[in-house]
Amino acid sequence: MFSALRTPLSRSAGGMARASSRSATATTLRQLSSSAPRFSSPSYNNIIVSQPKPSVTLITLNRPKALNALNSELFHEINAATAAADDDAAVGAIVITGSEKAFAAGADIKEMKDKEFAAAYKSNFLGHWTKLTTIRKPIIAAVSGHALGGGCELAMMCDIILASPTATFGQPEINLGVIPGAGGTQRLTKALGKSLSMELILTGRPLSATEAASHGLVSRVVDEGTSVVDEAVKVADKIAQKGAVATQAAKEAVNASFELNLQEGNRFERRLFQALFATKDQKEGMSAFAEKRKPTFTNE
Ligand SMILES: CCCCCCC[C@H](O)CC(=O)SCCNC(=O)CCNC(=O)[C@H](O)C(C)(C)COP(=O)([O-])OP(=O)([O-])OC[C@H]1O[C@@H](n2cnc3c(N)ncnc32)[C@H](O)[C@@H]1OP(=O)([O-])[O-]
Q: Its Gene Ontology biological processes (predicted)?
């Protein structure tokens, strides 16, 4: 039903040799981040999918009137767009962003306010909203403005969070008579520890970007005047230049640390490390080091 959008711009950028496409994509980056999204897809109603670099898929949440509140259709679209990027061999990493004012102000309260338990339970309400965590390629959340409730949970489902100085993170569900429902109580607590997470979840108080960085919820806050989307695309492109097999293994191993104890986690890591000696990228990477040249990874 949905297919990843290749914008006219991305097609031309994708057709160029990598070296010669650099200046074109730099211009594209500036265009993408300095204004509202420039390209809209006929396939999606709530997101815009673009290709700021041939190796990077950028998904922009696009419900500005509702501060990017997350409704079911939007999440089906995110699932479809991320799955398409995951299957696209040319793509090495994905960036998800919102607007300057809101990454996402949470689940769409108006959509869910009349829900009843039986229907929510039978339809496994929110079940498909965590499909994002099954994507193999790295996903970076580029957050400006409100990342609240499901918006904060969406950011936390990503692998890296970069924040602009305006970003705020919070789980205000308690003010609505409910609790976080898409991993907020779990992922926030793993990131911030018990005391601060309890305070945020029990009071609904949001966390500033600086606080979020100081407690490790986000990897960093970009400088004032620097576009968080530009920065996220740069990081995504840098990741995309590495060997895809090792990248996938690294993501899998880090994520395993949330599920396994230290001994099991270390064993899992060691097995993956050993397995990578079966790849051409390992031979290339280590030979290139010994020969004092840059490696050319073939993702095999
Ligand atoms: C990853 C998986 C995700 C699944 C998550 C599910 C579980 C999750 O834990 C539950 C939630 O997220 S529960 C949610 C937790 N989140 C919250 O509780 C945050 C709720 N939002 C707020 O508290 C305020 O909007 C802000 C403080 C964000 C901004 O204040 P401001 O600058 O004065 O702006 P404003 O004038 O207020 O809003 C502008 C327009 O946007 C509209 N809209 C905004 N958020 C909406 C939403 N979530 N819904 C619908 N609409 C929402 C608002 O109605 C208005 O539209 P109108 O047609 O013109 O009336």
A: fatty acid beta-oxidation
Catalytic-role residue among 92, 149, 150, 183: 150
Is the domain of 106 the same as that of 217?
yes
Does residue 88 sit in the same domain as residue 157?
A: yes
Q: Residue 36 above 50 pLDDT?
A: no
265 lies in which domain range? 244-290
User: Is 163 found in the same domain as 249?
Assistant: no
Ligand 1 centroid from CA 47, angstroms: 17
Q: What is residue 27's predicted lDDT score, i.e. its pLDDT?
A: 34
**pTM for this model (two decimals):** 0.88
Question: What ipTM does this complex have?
Answer: 0.97
User: Per residue, what are the HEC states of the chain?
Assistant: CCCCCCCHHHHHHHHCCHHHHHHHHHHHHHHHHHCCCCCCCCCCCCEEEEEEECCEEEEEECCHHHCCCECHHHHHHHHHHHHHHHHCCCCCEEEEECCCCEEECCECHHHHCCCCHHHHHHCCCCHHHHHHHHCCCCEEEEECCEEECHHHHHHHHCCEEEECCCCEEECHHHHHCCCCCCCHHHHHHHHHCHHHHHHHHHHCCCEEHHHHHHCCCCCEECCCCCCHHHHHHHHHHHHHCCCHHHHHHHHHHHHHCCCCCHHHHHHHHHHHHHHHHHCHHHHHHHHHHHCCCCCCCCCC
Catalytic-residue membership of 149: no
State the pLDDT at residue 3. Answer: 38
Residues 146 and 27 in one domain: no
Catalytic residue selected from 85, 104, 147, 153: 153
